[in-house]
Amino acid sequence: MKPTTRTSRWRSDVVFGEPQQHGGTTIIPATREGPFGSKALGVVAIDEAGTSWVPAVDGDRVAFVAVLTGLIAGTLATLAVLRQPPWPTSAAMIAMNHDRFGGGTRAGG
């Protein structure tokens, strides 16, 4: 088994931008180049405390996943109710009334 080095994990389509200084912190942006353009991955932040990776969060993707999850949950709930409604069926109502009123005959009539 070949040992994995930290540098072998980087993909060839990841591009690091020019380092920028912001108040004692050096920031290096990272993007991924693809067939439809580039996508921000995050930044490498270097300061006195050390080096850290700060990922970029795509708010549109998070919102899309939330809406899609809600639509799927609503669809599954609708299908479950259509298959077996939570209210009694007409056959069950007739059987309950039949048992309650003694076979459906009127007394004293």
Concise summary:
With 109 residues, this protein is an alpha+beta fold. The protein has two helices and five strands, in the order βββββαα.
Structural description of this entry:
The protein is 33% helix and 30% strand. It folds into two domains: 12-56, no CATH class; 58-102. Strands 1, 2, 3, 4 and 5 form a five-stranded antiparallel β-sheet that branches. With 109 residues, it is an alpha+beta fold. The model is unreliable at 1-5 (pLDDT under 50). The protein has helices at residues 59-83, 90-100; strands at 14-16, 20-22, 25-34, 37-47, 50-55.
Number of helices: 2
* Overall number of strands: 5
Radius of gyration: 32 Å
pLDDT averaged residue by residue = 83
Main β-sheet, in a few words?
5 strands, antiparallel
In helices, the fraction of residues equals 25-40%
Identify the notable features of this structure and list them briefly.
single chain, 109 residues, alpha+beta, 5-stranded antiparallel β-sheet
Give the helix/strand layout.
Layout: E1 14-16, E2 20-22, E3 25-34, E4 37-47, E5 50-55, H1 59-83, H2 90-100
Antiparallel strand pairs: 1-3, 2-3, 3-4, 4-5
